Amino acid sequence: MGPVTSTIRFSEAKRNFARVGARAKRGDVVYLQHGPDRFQLVYHPPAEPVPHRPPGHFRPTAQDLAEINGARTDATA
To answer: What's the rounded Cα separation, in Å, for the pair 3 and 25?
Structure first.
């Protein structure tokens, strides 16, 4: 059986938000309706955590600073 499509009014979705969210999480197509407007509720899995970078990780090297400032370095000479 494929995903189920349903349209739910905002007022009902507010009262039963956990159930509505669970339906979207399992793959059902859920539309929320507010007057003439319809919005689709879509589940997005948690994002990967940002890896820890030690202090100074993004600090430029002397060669980087020389290139930024337009100076020639031994590697470019």
So the answer is: 11
Distance CA 20, CA 62 (A): 55
Whole-structure pTM value: 0.58
Question: What is the dotted CATH code of the domain comprising 5-41?
Answer: 3.40.1620
* Ranges 12-21, 53-62, 64-73: which has the least confidence: 64-73
Question: Does the pLDDT value for residue 24 go beyond 90?
Answer: yes
- Percentage of the chain beyond pLDDT 70 is 90
Domain borders along the chain are 5-41
How many beta carbons lie within 10 A of that of residue 4, not counting itself?
Answer: 11
Phi-psi region of 35 (alpha: psi -120 to 50; beta: other; left: phi over 0): left
The set of long-range contacts for 41-49, using a CB threshold of 8 Å and a minimum separation of 24, is 41/13
